[in-house]
Amino acid sequence: MVTVLPIQASTRGPRPTRARARRAVLWSVALFVLGDLGGSMLVDRMPGDLRFPEASVFMSWAAAMPHGPDVLLLGSSRLLDVRPARIQAAAGEPSLAVLNASAAAGDATTFDYLLARFIAAGRTPRLCIVELNPEALARNNRLIGASLTRFFTWTDVARYGADLVRAGELNAMIGARLAPFYRYRAALLEWMTRAVVGQRARSAAPPPVADEERAVRADPDAEPVQAWLDRVYASWMVDYDVGGAAVDALWALLDRARRNDVTVVLVGMPAATIHRRLQTPAVERRFQAHVAAIAKAYDTTFIDFRDRLDDGLFRDRYHFTPAGARAFGEILGREVVAPRLQRAGGPESWRSY
Fold first, then answer.
1. What domains appear along the chain, each with residue ranges and CATH number?
2. Considering only 21-25, 210-214, 287-291, which range has the smallest mean pLDDT?
3. Which of 233, 205, 206 is nearest to 319 (CA)?
4. Of 150, 153, 175, which Cα lies nearest the Cα of 42?
5. What phi and psi, each to the nearest 5 degrees, are found at residue 128?
6. Considering the entire predicted model, what is its pTM?
7. Count of Cβ atoms closer than 10 Å to residue 302 Cβ
8. How many CA atoms lie within 13 A of 73 on its CB side?
């Protein structure tokens, strides 16, 4: 005879599978978001040279100068190849301390960041030559992506998010802010390595060329690259309007310079005819109106060199050949630096100002 024992029914019902899955997904998303938000805040606190190594190279150059820099150049890759020695010779003052702190894909956000670092380090220049072109003041600023990578924090992204989206940098912004452990993995690894084995000094070698301009510098005659540049610049000038992050940064730079007794000269960079033709009369009117407002507000000078050099001195639409870089360095020394140096009474008077 088989005895069947009664089985007591469980008083606890099974957990709903769907509710458990929902909670698991929500916890996973929360942990992912919180982890990456924390990571992006960590990135914001990294040593500056890990995100923007060129800046630390510039600072090492300045630290090696017995005084100065007397003259600081702030520009993009268009000014990068101009040699300080050429400016010194043309200005007739070999002892003048000239430092070219131009960075590929730099705009006014980069320039203001660098000037702030020089001032904070006690290396305030007496004269600051700043690159200024119509595209650099466009609300549709295609160079802002470099600043996002180099030094933008959450505060900057919140302020200039619309500019980044307008410039086509939405994916880069998401990667930099919401996937920081992947985007900055090399920099984070170096930071951790420093914490373990100690600080590693940065080389004082010339700063590297940014990835976005490497192809142009390596093979300037390649048709695909030139076609890409044509499309980018044409889109830059469509519905041209002055505004956005670069304009805010330019005014901030001028205000910073005035507070620290730094003379600023804005220079329109030379460019080939094909490039200047895209700057239509409408673009030029808006650009010149803003330049006039700047000059009135800050008593600064804009010198327009955009049509100064022959087309044969450019290796593409606006990057110099070696001869072009030499020619423009001499122009800066002779027409920008020398007159201001003479009015100051020489380098020593300038430095004691």
1. 21-51+142-201 (no CATH), 52-138+207-351 (3.40.50.1110)
2. 210-214
3. 233
4. 153
5. -120, 120
6. 0.80
7. 17
8. 29
